[in-house]
histidine kinase
Amino acid sequence: MKLLEKTSRIYLLASLVIYVAVGVAFYWITTFMIYDEVESRLMVEKRDFETYLQTNNTWTNNSYFVENKIEVVPVFGEFENEATFTDTLIYNRYEQSMDPFRQLTFYTMIGGSPYRVAIRKSIVESYKLIEAISAAMVTFLALLMISMFFFQRNLSGKLWRPFYDSLARIKNFDWTKDKKLEFESSEISEFNELDEVMVKMASKMQHDYKSLREFTENASHEIQTPLALINARVEQFIQSQDLSENQTHWIEEIYHAARRMSRLNQGLLLLAKIENQQFTDQEPIDLAALIIARLKDFEDIITHKNIMVHTESTGSFVKTISPALAEIMVTNLVSNAIKHNYNDGKLTILTGANYFVISNTGHELKADPGRLFERFKKESAQAESVGLGLAIVKQICDNYELHIDYRNVDSLHSIRVFA
């Protein structure tokens, strides 16, 4: 969820709660004030009624009290001499409806006998007034809330526009290039401070990337040169006729160790380059077709081990990827499937839309399948293996948003790569 959408929802919810609370409070305050006014008038009518009794010492229907619907009823037995206010409904014979009234009930003596007096005042108009006020208030608050919501949304959009512009620049920034990250100046100090921090971080990333790239390039060149020299001199010693059998054995050990060190150096430097995204050239490549093409490079060893190869294609697997890395990934997987295969074994390659599967017969897996793609985790005990082949494949897949998994059914080992 985007920031503006989140803040707009919170603002709308908070405004709704506040407006409902204000509306309820306003309704009760209005009702209280109207009731207070009606009760005050009823108390005035009560005093007028008592004054009338004091003057006449009797009660007869008087037009002065018709509006207030006065009712005088004799009381028999005990009663509490107190005045109470209540709501009641009285039938309106003209409109044939029950109208609300506010009633004041009290007790008094008329001609020496106790009477219960009820003075009522219609609150129909008061209710209508409350309804009108409530409707106006709801309409006003709704318009106010909607207006403030759109105003706040538009205002937030304008205030946060520099942030989103900076975010877009950061997304499009490529630290592998020499072009520096630049932002437009904003009126908001916090955004300017954020831009300054991001510029410093981007500069540091570019500097670190450049230093690491130079290191890997220098290391690749400087380490490979003495290793190549060692291998050349060792080969000369091996071809020499003046060495004893024991000396030849030790020189061969040195030769194999130097070759392994050379492959290990190349593998680690390749991993570093992949992780640092130094392979910037990309193009759409059909990985399914590439696998079939790479099989031809292994025809000799396939023939030597008498491996039966079966290929099946149901579609193309086109992925935008570095051609060099695509070659490395496919070559490592095919080489791994052949290296760990039986003599007279089987190699099956299935390709389809957005996936390919390379399966081979082989010995039971001894290592943990969950750690098969880690560095230096190797199944083969051969000295030639450095345990980086599948780790390199996994790193390439991660860089290009590909998924890879391993499955084993009986003696058939399968590695699947899919988008």
User: Anything to note?
Assistant: The helical segments are 3-56, 124-172, 189-239, 245-275, 287-295, 299-304, 323-339, 389-399. The longest helix spans residues 3-56.
